[in-house]
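Please review this one:
***
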Amino acid sequence: MMQRREFLAQSLAIPAAILSGSTLLAKDSAPLPGQTKNSKFAVNVEMWWTKLPFIQRIEAAAKMGFSAIELWPWRGKDVNAIHETCQRLKIDIIQFTAWGFKPGLNDPNNHTRFVEEIDASCEIAKKWNCPMMTVVGGDDIPGVSQEKMHEAIITGLKKAAPIAEKHGIMLILEPMNILVDHKGHCLYGSEPATKITRAVNSKMVKLNWDLYHMFITEGNLLPNLKKGFDQVGYLQIADHPGRNEPGTGKINFPELLKGVAELGYHGHIGLELRPKTTELAAALAVQKADNW
């Protein structure tokens, strides 16, 4: 067993931790893989540890040293168990998905249901002490122009904004990419996304600025982020191609993360990515990318 531990530590370049079975134990005061130098990260427990039951994924994130998680819809999950687990482990939930792809926010016929769901989701967010919730624009509607669909998103968000403001929970609208992951989606790119949130004009309606989607859609990550920085509520990352951890694709993450900090973003960054091999290797790659 000792030889196996030493081999894993050396081959994966773990400078300060020992892997024992599935449990990661800190050695002295050195950081665990989920503990990073400059940025704060929230690991996505929908895409990491996918073979484990959901509560065990949160436990795995805490054992690896992450201070926060993000997740997708709360419906269908054990809300109380998630709350109790996060309380016990002292790990934060930074954001979850309150409104997904279907039914589309880009259809006015869905706005009543959208407002009701935002109200219900705000109660969950308060229970979880979660500051943000992602909302999605919706897929293309046949025969409806993009302009009309975006107008409907603005209208829907304006209806929900007072609820978000009352509860103190930020709605973060996420533009996608239509070239790789979400063909047929109605909202992509920073320019139309910032146009929407600026039109809503609420301090509690901003953008979930996923840098992976933005890289595929338009590139020029830092210049475009700077132009729309006043509309950023949250950032997410993944490398491209593959949607894996930093170092597996084309994005220069040390430069990107440094630039993000220099722009003034100091909130959590979501790791909405698929570990290419193991969660440990992915966490170490994030740690290395943040060591600028």
Confidence is low (pLDDT under 50) at residues 1-27. The domain at 33-289 is CATH 3.20.20.150 (TIM Barrel). The radius of gyration is 19 Å.
